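Form 12-C: Joint structure prediction
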Amino acid sequence: MKLKTFATAAAVAVVAASGVAAEGYPERPINLIAPFNAGGGTDLLLRGLAPHFSEAIGANAFVSNMAGGSGTVAASALQGQRPDGYQLAYMSVTVSTIQPQIKNVPYGIDSWTPICSIAASPTMLFVSDDSPYQSMDDVIAAVNAAPGELVFGSSGPGAITHLTMVSAFAGLGIIDDMKHLPFQGSGPAIKELTAGNIQFFGDTELLMKRGDFRPLMVFNNERVESFPDVPTATEVGIEAPLNELYLWGGLFAPAGLEPEVTAKLEAACEAAVASDGFQQFAANSGTVINYRGAAEFDAFYRAQYTANATLIEAAGL
Amino acid sequence: MLSALPEAISILLSLEGLLVLTLGTILGIVLGAMPGIGSTVAVAIILPFTLTMSQAPAIILLLAVYAGSVYGGSIAAILINTPGTPQSAATCLDGYPMAQRGEAGLALGWATVASVIGGLVSAVVLIFAAPQLAALALEFGPIETFSLILLGMTCIVSVSTGSVVKGLLAGMIGIFLSTVGGDPILGEMRFTFGNWQLFAGFNLLAVVIGVFALSEVFIRASNQISTVSELVSFNGVVLPRMKMWKGRVRNLAKSVAIGNVIGVLPGTGAATAAFISYAEGRRSSRNGGGFGKGEPDGIVSSEAANNAVTGGALVPTMALGIPGDAITAVMLATLTLHGITPGPKLVEDNPTLIAAIFAGFFIINLLLLPLGMLLSRVAAPILRIREAFMMTAIVILCVVGIYFVRGNPFDLLVMGGAGVVGFLMRRQGFPMAPLVIGMVLGPTLELTLRQGLILTDGSFPAFFTGHPIALVLGLAAVAALLLPLVRSMRKGTVG
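Section 2 - Result
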């Protein structure tokens, strides 16, 4: 009896306390965690967003870095933390949907409360400017003529660049006749593409423009404006779910965040993304803005998680 | 680009330009001198401030901090035997013994002059030969890089003060530590025992600071080794006189060249250059016999090479849009934020900006001399505080610095563990530099070996048959190992 009363009282207290917390939120600074090193793409995007996010939510928002393990160290540390809305991480497609399916990490599909998506860029398959391949048909013919000779690169096993290559060549049924050369980061890989040690690489348009490269196809639902002559993967003959691939990212909180807090964060994120300052930042940095609210992002994230299971199997990871 | 030089110089000589050059260099030296901060962190600390600046000053600020921090690392290495970064670990080997002899000021003088000359030459090379050197970078594929790293590994023998066997053991431990974490080819986890904290492997900086700085503190605290001396006496930098350079110029020139070439090759870096240059200096300098006991040529070898890397690393960054190391990667990201796409057309499309960057880099290296002398004079009284306070301050700096890098408390445990292991190993006479070499070079050695085997379908001999550069470097590695052996056998004393 006494125990029951205590339990009830405790439950009431918890509900009351959390209700109060949601009402007064935010009353402390908010930590935006970049799961990569300072100076990287993710870090810069968050630093570009932070002042506008801070203004919109009415509290200080600061960026901290917790790098390592392709982003899994930060995600592993954040999962299971108290979902109080004061700790958010910017996670990409690989950190949130791919790494947990290939590594034994303590988080999975249900570990998060998605807040909003911020950016998404389709990936492209490209070759060096002096490459003899003008189309994917040329590539298929070359691979069939010399099986086991041609090499594709990636920025690391399980990275979005790797999955782009797997989607392309598994989708066309020629991956078993090709070699995969992983690098550590896209920089060294595009150097070897220029030098000719690898023949193919896949990344976003922003990275492709770093060198004298020629795109052969794009993993988007339609052709991209800047390259109207480059076919989509679907046009080349690659079937779903391998035909579309986006490097996307957004803000996540630990699972179980209160709906009121989620709503406040979502509204602040929308306002920050729409702000002139962030739009200018995105234009300068080549970030392709792709905002989704909490409910829509949640559905998108879960669909991606399932779809990427197919990719991971094809990649043999 | 040279026609844009007058406009570039007017940018540099504006108030903003001068402020950025001076303050950036000062900040770089100070941050570099603090154990555990290091170049990468120093640049990361400054980065947010550059977001509101215009293009040229933003990049020049980062460059000034970069070049300053590489030099600053030598101050802590010489005065308190604590390399601020892995790249000044080789400077400790002769710098600290010199300081213990009471020649701290002169040791810093050698380091300062070597750093300035290394940096200035690399700036000139950058300005006049960037496109040609960038072509060299493209010649170095995975197989060539593997051979270079193999040659670098032979340095372990040169830096093993005392016993070579113990040095090799320490090197093996370093390589083993570097294999913890994700497999670079397959992505699987190795030696993590399911602990996600180890997914990223052991943090290099945490291990370096642990085995050098913390273990030094433990040794002093335990006070059981009679060779522990008092803190060094130091009253500011003493520049070496002209006649002291007699017989040392060739070693300086060679060190600068080594730093420049290695800096150009992506995926290597300042620590690799400093160690290779140190080993080459020990082999070929006429003062090579004194290396490890406080020989100025040892300091010159290490410092001229690691500062020459800064200009070298900018070559592929500016000419190809490919970062030479983690710091130039940050600079490329900064350029992107300012609306400039790095790539092969960077120089062509932004002549004024690039001219300002190159000229600014030259001026920064000139500034190292007066600012370095000034700052070490300011820092001198700090060394006169009581040893207990000094050691406490070092521990605090280490903890703050390491925690700042990745925001991960686990790195502090790694640092503490490395400190204890380093303490025990040093008491048994194990040199620590080989351990650092193993950890720095291990990952690249493994990655490029396995990449090469993918390219040659698993044939190791094919590394050398089809790749002349790799063959030459491979033979040099074999020679570096065998020659000392042959020499000592001729003398009839094997050991």
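Section 3 - Comments
Chain B has 20 helices and two strands. The mean pLDDT of chain B is 86.
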